[in-house]
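In response to a reviewer's request, we include the raw inputs and outputs for one of the modeled complexes. The two entities were modeled together in a single run.
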Amino acid sequence: MAVKAMTDHTKGLVVDADLHGHENIAELAEFCEIPWSVALRHMGDSPDRNIAISPRPTFTAPFPGGLARAKQTPSALQMLSEMDTLGIDIGILFPDHLLSIPVIERPDFATAVAAAYNDWLLSKWLSASSRLRGAIVVAPQEPREAAAEIRREAANSEFVAICLATCGVRPLYGHKSYDPVYEAACDTGLPVVLHGLTTVHPTFPFQLDVFQSEFMKHAFAHSLSIMANVGSIIETGVPERVPELRIGLLEAGVTWIAFAMKRFDREYLERRRQVPHLKRLPSAYLADMYVGTQPLDLDRPGALDGLTAVCGHELRLIFASDWPHHDFDHPDVIRRLAGSAASRQRILYENAYGLFRALPKGVLMPSRADSRAI
Amino acid sequence: MREMDRSFVKCGDVEVCVFRSRGGALFAIENVCPHQGGPVCEGRLSGTLVWDDENDRIEWTLDGAILTCPWHGVEFDVSSGAALGGIDMRLRRRQITDDGRDLWVGSRI
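The model returned the following structure tokens for the whole complex.
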């Protein structure tokens, strides 16, 4: 008979808002409609063609050296094992290469491959464990088709969010053409989660060919693309048009929030009449949104509480690791940067339950279920 | 004073402006913007834009009742002193009495 300690598990739980499962092109083909299934099968025949699903131009020099670790997790079982190592109980899966879906030039291909991804994710990953939940990927090129895709997949409780990739998206997500997507989100109880990415594209803020290396492209693209889309969402009054909509923001870090809140409020003081549909300060709308912490751009102990003080709002921060990507954050970083136990619990666990639809409760990684709180 | 006229008076160290708005109502307001201390009473007295939810369009309203600070453009409703659009600022208003011959500016409301 094993002797085990009784533990209040809720105090140590970690929900990760941002994991990336790598799409297997050949497998996706099985879930895709003709003719695009044929195209995916052909792509899958050649490993080098994987990149073709995300037409991401590479203009930077091939600098020698650097990270040797593989930055892809190709299966649910491997992801669960890696979550055990990192100390993550529940993780929300976002796509890997398919984060580039907004820049795919053929809208019908983008829509078809998004649907294939969702069915593939449900079949190959989300059914493997209740510790893995998913975000429905949609192609913003066709908002009405995207809304239909949300309604189709939302019946599956394994999906807890809708992924809106910001990569090269045009128009920005405040545009009224996306209202069918937001209405479908509200009708199904799902939040929309904007996810940043780096690419080079003629749409603001992705004209990054002005830089010589990924060093500076990457520093700007993720954060600016989230800021641009949040600015658009506030400018056009999405929170007033669709007040029930829950919005999450991933992979922009956290320090931009202070800039955006203060700058947007400052502009609003002078130019309120240009946006008379707004009823509150821009910072109040932003404070209602949930912001993923990765890549954490603060370093001093307790700094997250300092950020809250600067912003003048209680921020809805949610832990996001971005595993297995090169710039992932370990949950221990939150434990160091959040000043109080209550703050840590909100970021690592509680706020995720406010954002995502019906996350399972009482689901723990095996080691925690077995023994002790961390 | 005619409608839409304004007149400044010194009350101790504080400059106060008396407005007669469209419709004839009188308002006395201290000439210090709560935002950054600008001469708010020197700003334009006009109307503003609001959103017409019912018809889903922009609408011009409150013509003659909105004071816009000339420094940064913060808009205030002179009848209440409140800033528009959820901005947590308020003009300092004074009591105003018309005895038929003169206008008398009193203490803060």
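As requested, we also summarize the result in words. The mean pLDDT of chain B is 94. The beta strands of chain B are 6-11, 14-20, 26-30, 44-52, 57-68, 75-77, 93-98, 103-108.
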